[in-house]
């Protein structure tokens, strides 16, 4: 199973700060979804959208790192895990699909940093 990061975990600085040691496999476009930001904190979420895709990165992880990711993502209270079994991918999305909001500035900064670190064009960041 690979972890698809599309938010703050794209940033090496954020992963180091949270002691999350996952190994990059490759950049990846998750088709059929779009990124949005939701209340109450402006955190990123994914929602289905047949004509869209979300750029991000696929990472290898082990059980210990998954527990760290779970803690960081406040799983299972705030985020849930979604599995796309035929692609062997797991990602986090919000349990409760609240109203859209402006992006949390700190998270947005991590996402932009992560795009730059992983050579993902900023022009592909649509929300």
Textual characterization of the structure:
The protein is of the alpha+beta class. The protein has one domain: Hypothetical upf0131 protein ytfp. A hairpin with a 4-residue loop joins strand 2 and strand 3. The radius of gyration is 13 Å and the shape is globular.
Layout of strands and helices, then pairs:
Elements (H helix, E strand, L loop, with lengths): L1 E4 L6 H6 L5 E16 L4 E18 L2 H10 L6 E6 L4 E6 L10 H13 L10
Parallel strand pairs: 1-5
Antiparallel strand pairs: 1-3, 2-3, 4-5
Outline type: globular
Number of strands: 5
The Cα radius of gyration reads 13 Å
Q: CATH top level?
A: Alpha Beta
Number of self-contained structural domains: 1
Largest sheet features: 5 strands, mixed
Gist of the model:
This protein is of the alpha+beta class and 127 residues long. The protein is 23% helix and 39% strand.
Provide tags for this entry.
127 residues; alpha+beta; five-stranded mixed β-sheet; 5 strands; globular
């Amino acid at each position: 199973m690979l972890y698809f990061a599309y938010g703050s975990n794209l940033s090496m600085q954020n992963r180091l700060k949270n002691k999350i040691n996952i190994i990059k496999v490759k950049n990846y476009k998750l088709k059929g979804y779009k990124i949005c930001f939701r209340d109450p904190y402006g955190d990123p979420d994914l929602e289905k959208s047949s004509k869209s895709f979300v750029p991000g990165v696929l990472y290898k992880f082990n059980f210990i790192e998954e527990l760290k990711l779970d803690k960081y993502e406040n799983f299972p209270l705030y985020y849930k895990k979604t599995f796309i079994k035929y692609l062997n991918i797991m990602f986090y999305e919000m349990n409760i699909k609240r109203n859209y909001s402006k992006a949390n500035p700190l998270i947005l900064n991590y996402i932009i940093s992560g795009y730059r670190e992983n050579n993902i064009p900023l022009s592909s960041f649509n929300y």
